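Quick one:
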Amino acid sequence: MSAKLGRLSVYSLFLAIFVCALAAPAGAAETLDYIVAGDLRFITDDNMARWNLDIDGGKLIWVEGKNSQAQQNIYYYNLLSGKKLLVTKTQYSDVDPALSGNYVLWGERSSYQSPSQINGYFMITRQKGTIDPYPANQGSPDYAGGYAVWLDSRYGGFINIMMKDTKTGKSYLFHQSGTSDKLSPTISGGYVYWVEKGNLYRMAVSNPRGTPQLIAKGVPGDYSVADNKAVWETKTAGGHYRVVMHDLESGKTVDITDGSYD
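Output:
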């Protein structure tokens, strides 16, 4: 979701929405030029701020600010039909939406003093509900294969990873440690991946509370993983940024930015 390698093929689509939303005045999208690989298509052409985009297949979601960001909405967009749907809105915060098939997860505060709770929305039935009603701060959700994962503060005063089996409706602690610096839990290929203390770990969905496997060190929270590959941005000793790809089967990491660092 916030971390899906398969979505990199539509990076130009992400870029067009982001730049158009933040930099262009209303009606000025046609004056901007982009160099992209593939077709360029504008989804929005006004000056509203948008962030936290996610895409899965022919579906797209994002957070959009309203009323000088006092209200935040999550929108769903079907790339094939061109239809846009309001998923939810709040005057407090809608954060980290994750899209998988016809299912959307996000963190939402229902009031100024309430903790952020993970909510889910099923596109087909248009039903919305709380994933786990426990009053802890919850965030960074992901969903795949009938399982949801998220960061949660209910145990020991630290941020840990919770999981819910949506088939049985049961929620349980997936990974716990005495730190709060866990980031971006992501489900891919039967594993849950996350960054903790700057390192990328994984553990099988079927093995909650097991021993995490260290994948790589020096990984930021905005990594992506799919098809047994993980990618992330890193900084060289010379101050340049590069994108590296790690093969989860061979354990090899390669620079895929062709050495130009532009």
